Amino acid sequence: MCQSMQLYFAVLRIGLYTLFRRICGKAPAAPKPTFSVLCLGLANSGKSTILTLLSGENADGIRPTVGFSIKALMFADCFVDVKELGGSDNVRMYWNKYFCGAQAVIFVIDSAGSKESMETANAELHKALADPELDGLPLLVLGNHQDKEGARSKEQITKELELGLQSTARKWIIHTCSMKNKEEIMAAFQDFNKLLLEMKEKEEREDKTEEQDGEFSKI
Amino acid sequence: MLLCLVIKDAGNSRRDKGLGETSHTVHAIMAGRDMVNGGGEVDTFEKDLKEILEDGPNLNDMHNTVQTGSPQKIMTSSYPGGSGSFDNTGSSQLPRSQTMPPATSHVSLSNNPTSSNGDFLPKTVQTAQSKIETIKSWSVNTFKCTKQYIAERLGKGSKTVDLELEAQIEVLRDMQRKYANILRLAKNLNSHFCNVVQTQRALGEAFSEQAQRSPELQEEFSYNCETQRALVKNGEVLLGAMNFFTSTINTLCNKTMEDTLLTVRQYEAARLEYDAYRNEMEALQLAPRESTSASKVDGSKRKFDEHKVKFEKLRADVSIKLKFLDENRVKVMHKQLLLFHNAVSAYFTGNDSALEATLKQFNIKLKPANTEKPSWIEQ
């Protein structure tokens, strides 16, 4: 009897509380959106290190990723699940198996790399982006290893990776960073998160207008 | 529906005998409509009829369902992109305008809507058609898959089984369950331990307060206070390690494994479709050969090949993903288990030595404290 009374009161309280919130116009805070993002790049471009730094772990003793690893990054405005794929030759051929379900792409390059490596990166990037699964998804290009000698600037990377050729449907941003400076990486990801959130809002808006269109055509 | 049939008739008769008969049938409709309207108001009637005729998708749907692929379509189409059904209505509209009593706005009225029809309708007709097509193919697909699924469940249908892969998938599912259990336990431990640490902190504070208040037990209280504080300090380190452990296992269990299981689910769906089309093709091939069935067999063969390609691709995906997942799991768990073990053992051994050290201190200093002051009973 007593227990059921307690239960009853609990339900009543929850009901009153929600009513109160409704009246005050305070809906419960929307849960943070979660994005699943693909992280690509050639071997030794520093993908794992960047992600490890971002998740606040110790970045020492990181060995090349064989296969893949998934890291959940927490930001102030959203969660980002980064699916990072190894960049060595034998793993690259399996990249396309992991494209399904991605909502955005991060491509990390070694900005101080040789000309051949840039060409390979260019070929791999465009090959990956040509996949129908990644069509129109936002892209973040990270020029890593800025602290090394002979590192290319943003403009040079843009030119060498032929990013200008990207269609207008895809939004892309480019940032440079180094492993030593976490702020730069954070700034890049802040920009990227903004892009992701914008994309999400746009999609929601489009969904709404589509519904309305559907109603109109019914009429 | 009736209207549609009449109009279809009208179209046919027009093709056969010319305009004269058509105008008769349309007159018949007109007469019927006039009676309904109760007056001979041409404009409203025209509007009404037009509304009915322009009710594009509806008419068209009926038409599609009634006579898809039947040869009774009007060939002469003055409306680009318009489907056969609408040409019928259009052609029935033309003679009507010829038989109308002359009105001032007669030509513009009859011409404008038709031209707007020509611009406007193909779009809706096309979207409606494509929608119908997708719904049709979807329902056919779903029906086949459901049939196959039920047949498999009842143990009748034949089923493609990749023993090795299925076993691996089963192992993976089992492993995910086990890891989820580990995760649950670790989370429980984490929350309990969090409570323990908080209690220890509160206890330490209470001890230190008492140490200041009661001078006779000051030393004892302060020892305990220090012990508790040391425990809290070490406990927080362990708590951090445990948090990291649980969050990484959470990622492994709910993200990494889930990612592979998603592909597995797609693979299983593709397998079902593949089997459904395979069975259908086999059934068709076994059936007696006729001229109509040859094209059907070809069509089913083509669909079967499509699904086979998809199935094979997903199978390769799954096997590769399983391999990579295994490697990733071993790597991650190796690191995490080492960390967890080190943290736990460091916590307990570290506390052990600290505890022993404090106990020793306590024991040594306890005796002099007792000998100094005998109890008031002994005095």
Automatic annotation (TrEMBL), chain A:
The keyword Metal-binding applies. This is ADP-ribosylation factor-like protein 15. Belongs to the small GTPase superfamily. Arf family. GTP binds at residues 41-48, 87, 144-147. Keywords: GTP-binding, Magnesium, Metal-binding, Nucleotide-binding. Pfam families: Arf. It comes from the Eukaryota. SUPFAM superfamilies: P-loop containing nucleoside triphosphate hydrolases. SMART domains: ARF (SM00177), SAR (SM00178). Mg(2+) binds at residues 48, 65. Signal peptide: none annotated. One of its GO terms (molecular function) is metal ion binding. Transmembrane segments: none annotated. It comes from Mytilus galloprovincialis. The keyword GTP-binding applies. The lineage of its organism: Eukaryota, Metazoa, Spiralia, Lophotrochozoa, Mollusca.
Automatic annotation (TrEMBL), chain B:
Pfam families: Arfaptin. It comes from the Eukaryota. The lineage of its organism: Eukaryota, Metazoa, Spiralia, Lophotrochozoa, Mollusca. Residues 61-120 have a biased composition (Polar residues). This is ARFIP. GO terms for cellular component: cytosol; Golgi membrane; trans-Golgi network membrane. It is found in: Golgi apparatus membrane; Golgi apparatus, trans-Golgi network. The keyword Phosphoprotein applies. GO terms for biological process: intracellular protein transport; regulation of Arp2/3 complex-mediated actin nucleation. One of its GO terms (molecular function) is protein domain specific binding. The keyword Phosphoprotein applies. Residues 160-360 form the AH domain. Residues 55-120 are annotated as: Disordered. Keywords: Golgi apparatus, Membrane, Phosphoprotein. SMART domains: Arfaptin.
